[in-house]
Amino acid sequence: MGTRFRAVHPISAYRSKVEHSAGKEAVSHPEAWRGGMARLLKARRKEVTEITHRVLVPLVRKGGVGKSTTMSTIADWLTTNGVDWSGYDLDDEQRTFMTYNADRVRILPADERRQTQLMWILGEAEKHAVTLVDPKAHQYEELLDVLRLMAKAEERVLADGVRITVLLFPADEEQRLSDIQGTVAALMDTVDYLVVDNTQVHREKLVFFEQAALLENLMSLAARHIKLPSLWETTKKCMAIASEDIGRPLGFLEASRTKQMETFHRLFLARWLQMLFAEYKQAQTVLLPDGLKIAELEDHQPTQRQERKFRFARQ
Q1: Is the pLDDT of residue 81 over 50?
Q2: Rg, C-alpha atoms of the chain
Q3: Are 137 and 71 in contact (CB under 8 A)?
Q4: CA-CA distance, 58 to 166, in Å (whole number)?
Q5: Domain ranges of the chain
Q6: pTM exceeds cut of 0.85
Q7: How many Å apart are CA 282 and CA 275, to the nearest integer?
Q8: CA end-to-end span of the chain
Q9: pLDDT one-digit tens code per residue, 259-305
Q10: CA dihedral defined by 55, 61, 65, 66, rounded to 10 degrees?
């Protein structure tokens, strides 16, 4: 049996200390305790079991933010670098994640026990180095409830070595910022965080998010931040045409290597993946188990011959 421990919520612990010395009025606003949160979290971090399994779960209320694209390209990055992974698509209607990775992603039909689905997936996490979960956009509340219950549990729920990374998709929208704030307040350091900035969806700078105390709190929790490079709609259309020609859906990685794609768009897709994989490599501390190091991974880079073809195709 693994070591069992009592989970302590850092915000509650810190507020209790402040309330005891200064009364509840002193903590009526987050400004009263935000400054000391980072020190509290640093002080309460202890040596834990080495992370041997990662579970990546996006938490977002609405679709069209790049969730499935992110999960599919993370899968491509893992495949390229020989990392053992499995995936689950909880959207039995769109099936986008499974479509791009049909050989390794399972569809879990939605039912009235969606919370039980996530608990079952977490129980299977020990079988692979990385587990990817692509939920329906509207499952935000249900998934957060499961993770919140786990954070407040008296005993450790996950098996030793399993660590969850929550993917957040910010935007300068009141609802989206409120959801992220609620997620971080509920889970704190019981999970890791990856902030995904989708420049294709949000071409304007995320001014309010970057200026908010929320970003400061995420950085104090060692969150990593990546940016998704823009992918042309015409390239996506070429992928769809190539898929029709082959007779099955093509994922991003396979499309970047097939001759069914037009040369320019195939090479553009390869460069897009190269930039994206570089972002994932920088964030690998929250994407991979502890045993996998940067030196052991290889980039998906176009060859010099491909680069010459790409430059010629652009002319």
Answers
A1: yes
A2: 21
A3: no
A4: 6
A5: 53-228, 233-314
A6: no
A7: 11
A8: 63
A9: 999 999 999 999 999 999 999 999 999 999 997 765 544 544 444 44
A10: 20
Extract the tokens encoding 254. 């396979």
Mean pLDDT of 3-32: 36
Round to whole Å and give the CA distance between 61 and 73: 21
Which residues does 156 contact at the CB level (< 8 Å), separation at least 6? 2, 3, 4, 5, 7
Structure tokens at 102: 């049909």
Assign 3-class secondary structure to the chain.
Answer: CCCCCCCCCHHHHHHHHHHHHHCHHHHCCCHHHHHHHHHHHHHHCCCCCCCCEEEEEECCCCCCCCHHHHHHHHHHHHHHCCCCEEEEECCCCCCHHHHHCCCCEEECCCCCCHHHHHHHHHHCHHHCCEEEEECCHHHHHHHHHHHHHHHHCCCCCCCCCEEEEEEECCCCCHHHHHHHHHHHHHHHHHCEEEEEEECCCCCCCCHHHHHCHHHHHHHHCCCEEEEECCCCHHHHHHHHHHHHHHCCCCCHHHHCCCCCCCHHHHHHHHHHHHHHHHHHHHCHHHCCCCCCCHHHCCCCCCCHHHHHHHHHHHC
Task: Read off the tokens for 286.
Answer: 């929250």
| pLDDT tens, position by position, 217-257 | 787 788 999 988 888 899 999 999 999 999 988 999 999 99
Residue 72, φ and ψ in degrees, nearest 5: -70, -40
Burial class (CB in 10 A: 0-12, 13-18, 19+), 34: middle
User: Is residue 311's pLDDT more than 60?
Assistant: no
Distances (CA, A) of 142 to 10, 29, 136, 234: 23, 28, 10, 36
Q: What is the CATH number of domain 53-228?
A: 3.40.50.300
Q: Return the structure tokens found at 124.
A: 């299977």
